[in-house]
């Protein structure tokens, strides 16, 4: 169980709206600070625990801002594998919008797969993108978030 106050950070540029809504409800219900970071303006509910940071456009600017701000034990919501690796290296927790926690054990494998897919795309292979977030994904995310918050005692 962590003793430091929890802060939830969201890599908001690519985070689906339905996932943000789940996070807004959790932050409001549990009075947990939630910060969305993006390179475009974001609409957030007018609640004291929820805010957003708009960063300049550019490669990894939002990611670098999140990594610079997080503290050990913070939770970051991201589908970005390199960002998740940086979060884990800094002692944070990383959860993707489909409800999967990245761990020190799985992050290397995910980075290797990501690099392989990048090489395929660079050679002209169309690898497609991830499927849309399904109801099952939303439920998995909500369940994992709830378990994490309950384990920390922030529920």
What does this structure look like?
The chain is α/β, with parallel strands linked by helices. It has helices at 17-30, 61-69, 81-89, 104-122, 135-152; strands at residues 8-11, 34-38, 50-54, 75-77, 93-95, 101-102. The chain has a 6-stranded mixed β-sheet with strand order 3-2-1-4-5-6, sandwiched between helices. A hairpin with a 5-residue loop joins β5 (93-95) and β6. α3 (81-89) packs antiparallel against α4. The chain is globular, with a radius of gyration of 15 Å. It starts with 7 loop residues before the first strand and ends with a helix. The mean pLDDT is 88.
Give the proportion of residues in helices: 40-55%
- What class would the helix/strand composition place it in? alpha/beta
**Order of strands side by side in the largest beta sheet?**
3-2-1-4-5-6
Shape: globular
- Uncertain runs are none
Number of helices: 5
> Mean pLDDT, as a whole number?
88
- The end-to-end distance, rounded to whole angstroms, is 13 Å
Largest sheet: 6 strands, mixed
Number of strands: 6
CA radius of gyration: 15 Å
Q: Work out the strand percent.
A: 5-15%
Order of helices and strands: EHEEHEHEEHH
């Amino acid at each position: 169980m962590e003793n430091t106050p929890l802060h939830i950070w969201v890599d908001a540029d690519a985070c689906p709206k339905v996932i943000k809504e789940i996070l807004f409800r959790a932050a409001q219900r549990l009075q947990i600070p939630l910060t969305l970071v993006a390179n475009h303006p974001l609409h957030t509910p007018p609640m004291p625990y929820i805010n957003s940071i708009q960063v300049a456009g550019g490669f990894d600017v939002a990611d670098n801002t999140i990594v610079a701000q997080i503290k050990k034990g913070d939770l970051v919501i991201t589908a970005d594998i390199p960002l998740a690796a940086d979060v884990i290296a800094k002692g944070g927790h990383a959860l993707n919008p489909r409800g999967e926690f990245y761990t020190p054990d799985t992050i290397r494998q995910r980075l290797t797969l990501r690099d392989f897919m990048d090489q395929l795309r660079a050679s002209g292979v169309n690898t497609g993108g991830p499927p849309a977030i399904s109801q099952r994904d939303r439920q998995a995310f909500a369940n994992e978030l709830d378990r994490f918050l309950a384990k920390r005692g922030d529920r």
